[in-house]
Design goal:
The complex is a heterodimer. By secondary structure, chain A is of the alpha/beta class. Chain A has 3 domains: about 210 residues, FAD/NAD(P)-binding domain (3-Layer(bba) Sandwich); about 120 residues, FAD/NAD(P)-binding domain; about 110 residues, FAD/NAD-linked reductase, C-terminal dimerisation domain (Enolase-like, domain 1, 2-Layer Sandwich), CATH 3.30.390. Helices cover about 30% and strands about 25% of the residues of chain A. Chain A contains 13 helices and 22 strands. In chain A, strands 1, 2, 3, 4, 5, 6 and 17 form a 7-stranded mixed beta sheet that branches. In chain A, strand 21 and strand 22 form a beta hairpin. The two termini of chain B are about 50 Å apart. By secondary structure, chain B is α+β, with helices and mostly antiparallel strands. Chain B folds into 3 domains: about 70 residues, Beta Barrel (OB fold (Dihydrolipoamide Acetyltransferase, E2P)); about 40 residues, Dihydrolipoamide Transferase; about 200 residues, Chloramphenicol acetyltransferase-like domain (Chloramphenicol Acetyltransferase, 2-Layer Sandwich), CATH 3.30.559.10. Helix content of chain B is about 25%, strand content about 25%. The chains are: A alpha/beta, B alpha+beta. Chains A and B meet through strand 20 of A and helix 1 of B.
């Protein structure tokens, strides 16, 4: 039977997989990249990061136009053409996926479209449209990612019950939208739909929205969501859903009351599950954890020495940039260099306003018993933030009082996702808070909030006044 | 207020925590022993530098910590400045930790961490590219000094590698280190198959003792020379002056006599007061006489050191002995008080037994063991008389000392005991 031999095979062409394939090819390896979908790019490019950001950008325009009357500029009520919006979003994906494909071609990476199945530790079977294809390899890098979780109880087989995948398709604008799960996916899409005109209700089982971030950082997001959404219910639980005509009947418990309501659409955003089933991993020595993620060591190697795993499938934080770094590490280890993950992973939530952090959160510092001092700079003191009416932000630093090194940075505010990059670099370089305070930051920019936050630690930020402890 | 590991003394900047004497919630006094630290050749107790209630303990047994490492924090009381406000913004002095870095002078005899696990940088930080370079060379950043704040640059990594290479080029103690490698892997035997057993964990101090003894056993070419010394006169002198010493609050034992006699003999035979520096291929003869005294404690062997024995009076020696032995038994002895010995004395006379073969306390080259003295018939001037004879055993390192020298040392030592000058004992 037909069998191709290669040095490295990468299964899954998401941001982890294609990065691994390209890097391995750049290092002179013979590489095959297998993707079950026709378009490369994985969830990030097709059904995640990129389309959601496109929709958020588009819908921000609606919000901005509505909020400029007090500046003396008024617009007519926007006319929303959902089909055109979807097509524009699709064109972005098309461009990027095409870009990935041509980058693969330029590097001589062979792309096979089909489902991969492990026959053994060094052999894969790929089910392609043209039939079976066998691949024999020295090392495999597993990058098959994850998919939105859909609990059985919610899975009515009704397209009105959506995961993020369907929600990003924007089939229509539901009058009433229920979002189950107040994590970053639910909140980002909640803002998209609320800007489009849906009445959004968020139901969260825990007692906080965006629970991974410090509460003081999430506060501006929660405040804006409360203003924009119909309702946010904490410590609430959906018990049952049923199809009733063109709507979904949702039974829930909230505040000790049993509610029964009708929604036009429901977005289930309660987490993601690894795509580890139906891969033939049982024919290899790779081991899964109890949640179905593939276990790896610090070199990204699974229990099968021939198989590495990166990105969502390897567990940990499910973020594209973590997958990208793991891709580099896996390839370096295969290539005989030593790559281990010791990097700081920034987290960005593209809500309105954005929320981003890196290093330790205050909650983590408390839990770990790390000594820290907090310095905060409110955006109400930033001229740049005032100039575009977005003073609902805060820049916060956790500082080691002994060494004055930066332990963690959190930013909530417009453009926080871009601003966090400076903090990540500062932390990777082992910067002290004084290093940041002494660095000139251009005026007027939001980046100044980092400098002023650092200065506030010493009690001499220009645009805030902090009473010195010793003077009390 | 944090209690940090104080400077330990010459050339020592880290150690392994053997045990912690206090727990969170305890009230401690300034100077009170809070933990025990093993470093180089000593296990020593570390005193607290603050008083108050222990809030948090940051170290545990087995941790390797460096000078300046946080041991514990105390609240309330204290000899120290009032606790600083926990929340910023505190008024910070503008300039700090920014000492001028000396020009990088590459010195050939720059000390390189000898033992592979020497931690010189408690809290290293470096940029991603520097960390990657370190990883590729297999360098643990904790072993690279960096600047005062612990920051390591690419230059520091280069210098560290250069130093390692120079050290490797030197005639190192390869032979000594290679020997134990041949040791077979330990096997665990199930002794309960032959009868009831009781299991006890090996204490950290026991581990230290075991390691040092093995090191000595594996590297030293040891010979033990035996003799019996007539202690009759010493016994009489002791009895004669015991009361005088007693009046001044000091118990006169035979050990100060031993110290004086050994010190006098070492002066005449300086090779016994030396060390072998294998790295430099040199024999280092010490012009001071610091004698180690093996003390049997409940937990195990400890060796406090009495300094300048040749220059001290019998009374001072007797007094110092009492204090040091008590400190050792209470495990309150400091690291410095167990360092710098030039020769060791192990006196088992108070317990019993005759000749034994002591193991040399490296890096010293000889050790004197004394057994229990007993009345024995001996021939003196053609007559059989009863004399108090004490069995002695002198172990020496034959790499440094030859048999003839050892015999001559023993002869002079016997003389020093038997002709002990009464004037030295008088107070």
């Amino acid at each position: 039977m037909d069998s191709i031999k290669t040095e490295i095979v990468v299964v899954g062409a998401g941001p982890g997989g294609y990065a691994a394939a390209f890097y391995a090819a750049d290092l002179g390896k013979k590489v095959i990249l297998i993707e079950r979908e026709k378009k490369l790019g994985g969830v990030c490019l097709n059904r995640g990061c990129i389309p959601s950001k496109a929709l958020l950008y588009a819908t921000h325009q609606i919000v901005n136009s509505r909020e400029s009357a007090h500046r003396g500029i008024t617009f007519a009520e926007p006319k929303i053409e959902v089909d055109k919006l979807r097509a524009w979003k699709g064109s972005i994906i098309e461009k990027l996926a095409g870009g990935v494909a041509s980058l693969a071609k330029m590097r001589g990476v062979t792309v096979i479209t089909g489902r991969a199945y492990f026959e053994g530790s060094n052999k894969l079977r790929v089910e392609t449209e043209q039939g079976q294809q066998f691949v024999e390899y020295d090392k495999a890098i597993l990058a098959v990612g994850s998919a939105p979780a859909m609990p059985k109880a919610f899975d009515l087989g009704n397209p009105r019950v959506m995961t993020s995948t369907e929600a990003l398709e924007v089939t229509d604008i539901p009058e009433n939208l229920l979002v189950i799960g107040g994590g970053y996916i639910g909140m980002e899409l909640g803002f998209v739909y609320s800007a489009l005109g849906s009445k959004v209700t968020v139901v969260e089982a825990m007692d906080a929205i965006l629970a991974g971030a410090d509460a003081d950082l999430a506060r501006p997001v929660v405040a804006n969501a409360k203003k924009s959404f119909k309702e946010i219910r904490l410590k609430a639980r959906v018990t049952k859903m049923a199809t009733v005509g063109k709507q979904i009947k949702v039974d829930s418990e909230f505040n000790g009351e049993k509610l029964s309501e009708l929604y036009d659409r429901v977005l289930v955003s309660v987490g993601r599950v690894p795509n580890s089933a139906d891969l033939g991993l049982e024919n290899t020595k790779a081991v899964l954890d109890e949640k179905g993620f593939v276990k790896v060591n610090s070199q990204q190697q699974t229990d099968d020495p021939s198989i590495y795993a990166i990105g969502d499938i390897a567990g940990g934080i499910l973020l594209a940039h973590k997958a990208h770094k793991e891709a580099r590490n896996a390839v370096e280890n295969i290539h005989g260099e030593s790559g281990i993950f010791e990097s700081i992973i920034p987290a960005v939530v593209f809500t309105d306003p954005e929320l981003a952090w890196c290093g330790l959160t205050e909650a983590e510092a408390k839990e770990k018993g790390v000594a820290y001092v907090v310095s905060k700079f409110p955006w109400s003191a930033s001229g740049r933030a005032l100039s575009f009416d977005r003073t609902d932000g805060v820049t916060k630093m956790l500082i080691d009082p002994e060494t004055e090194r930066v332990l963690g940075v959190g930013i909530c505010g417009a453009g926080a996702g871009e601003l966090i990059a400076e903090a990540v670099l500062a932390m990777e370089m082992g910067a002290t808070v004084e290093d940041i305070a002494l660095t000139i930051h251009a005026h007027p920019t939001l980046s100044e909030t980092l400098m002023e936050c650092a200065e506030a630690f010493y009690g001499h930020a220009t645009h805030t006044f902090t009473k010195r402890k010793s003077a009390e | 207020m944090d209690v940090k590991l104080p400077k330990l003394g010459e050339g020592a900047d880290s150690g392994v925590v053997v045990g912690i004497f206090v727990k969170e919630g305890d009230t401690i006094a300034n100077g009170q022993a809070i933990m025990e630290l093993e470093n180089e050749k000593a296990v020593a107790s570390i005193p607290s530098t603050a008083a108050g209630v222990v809030e948090k303990i940051y170290v545990k047994a087995g941790d390797r910590i460096g000078v300046g490492a946080k041991i514990l924090s105390v609240a309330g009381g204290g000899s120290a400045p009032a606790p600083a406000p926990a929340v910023a913004p505190a008024a910070k002095p503008a300039a700090k930790k920014v000492a001028a870095k000396p020009a990088p002078v590459v010195e050939d005899d720059e000390p390189v961490a000898e033992s592979a696990d020497e931690i010189v940088n408690e809290n290293p930080f470096a940029s991603p590219s520097v960390r990657k370079a370190a990883r590729e060379f297999g360098i643990d950043l904790h072993k690279v000094a960096g600047d005062e704040s612990g920051r390591i640059t690419a230059e520091d990594i280069k210098n560290y590698i250069a130093r390692l290479m120079r050290a490797a080029a030197r005639p190192a103690k390869v032979v000594a280190e290679a020997a134990p490698a041949a040791k077979p892997a330990p096997v665990s035997v199930d002794f309960s198959q032959w009868g009831p057993i009781l299991k006890k964990p090996v204490t950290p101090l026991r581990k230290v003792i075991a390691r040092r003894m093995s090191e000595s056993w594996n590297s030293v070419a040891r010979v033990t020379q035996f003799d019996d010394i007539d202690f009759t006169k010493l016994g009489e002198l002791r009895k004669k002056f015991a009361a005088d010493y007693e009046k001044k609050g000091v118990k006169l034992t035979l050990t100060p006599f031993v110290l004086k006699a050994v010190a006098a003999t070492l002066k005449a035979h300086p090779i016994f007061n030396s060390s072998l520096d294998e790295v430099a291929s040199e024999i280092v003869i010490k012009e001071y006489i610091h004698l180690g005294i093996a003390v049997d404690t409940e937990q195990g062997l400890m060796v406090p050191v009495i300094r300048d024995v040749d220059k001290k009076s019998m009374f001072d020696l007797a007094k110092e002995l009492e204090t040091l032995a008590a400190k050792a038994r209470d495990r309150k002895i400091s690291a410095d008080e167990m360092k710098g010995g030039t020769f060791t004395i192990s006196n088992q006379g108070a317990i019993g037994g005759a000749h034994f073969t002591p193991i040399i306390n490296l890096p010293e080259v000889a050790i004197l063991g004394l057994g229990r003295g007993a009345m024995k018939p001996v021939v003196r001037d053609g007559q059989i008389v009863a004399r108090l004879l004490t069995p002695i055993a002198l172990s020496y390192d034959h790499r440094v000392i030859d048999g003839g020298s050892a015999a001559r040392f023993t002869v002079d030592l016997v003389k020093a005991f038997e002709n002990f000058d009464e004037a030295l004992v008088k107070i």
